[in-house]
Amino acid sequence: MMNKYDLIDRLNNRFTSLEIGLQDLHQQLEDLPLLAARVFSLPEIEKGTENQPIKHITVSATVGTPARDMALQHYQRLFIHHQGQNVSSKAALRLPGILCFSVTDSQLAACQQSIKYINQLKTELEHIITVESGLPSEQRFEFVHTHLHGLITLNTYRTITPLINPSSVRFGWANKHIIKNVTREEILTQLNKSLNAGRAVPPFTREQWAELINKEINEVKQLPKKVRLKIKRPVKVQPIARIWYQEQQKQVQHPCPMPLIAFCQIQSEIELPKLGELTDYDVTQIKHKYKPDAKPLRLLVPRLHLHVEIEGESII
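That's the DNA replication terminus site-binding protein sequence above. Prediction below.
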């Protein structure tokens, strides 16, 4: 780990630069001719309900100048005190949507430069906190809140997505799993690291936590060396945007936790992009595309979402 004081100094320095960069972008965008704006407010997540399964999300749409103002404010909402007292600080704020501005070449270049600078600072801050600090995930919270009290890290890390001359922007929901192949040795290394750290992880005492880790290590050690292991972790339902570019005949899908920014060049003579709606999410209405055959999995370590692939059969 590098010099602690240098790290803290750079953390504060980058964060101050980010706040100034976001204020500058706010001014730049406010001065551009607004062609269209549409944002979709989602219900706030109350404290203590972060891990409850989501079955329904009610969406409330705002359009025009009020939508633009909500979006510009949202980019700068980086702290817990930017939201209500009963709102969870563990859940990031989300405001899917789209802002469409008319731009000249010089305005486009200036805005692109500002967004690139902001996104670079966001990436650097994430690297300082998650990598350079050398801290495991459970200790990062304390580190961040000692120096930037009340910071919502996920809001800080999320980059701003610019679009240039899109033909249409449609919205929807993505509901999926993150699946990652891992080896027996990688998992044992991870478990031993947790054991050797000698910490207590609530609600366990230090002794109970060590006992749990030892039990998990023994279970993994009993597996054959060539066993196929997967981490299959559910991801909470996310708003997404599908962007269509008519000239290139190309569709691009973006996660959409905050408003995208579409720049429409004056001289391109492309019509205003067609904008879709984000409808309410209802888990019973989700249609899954055809999935190829997959090997059945047996859950081995629930805490890590670690599964063992069962050989010799397949399921759909």
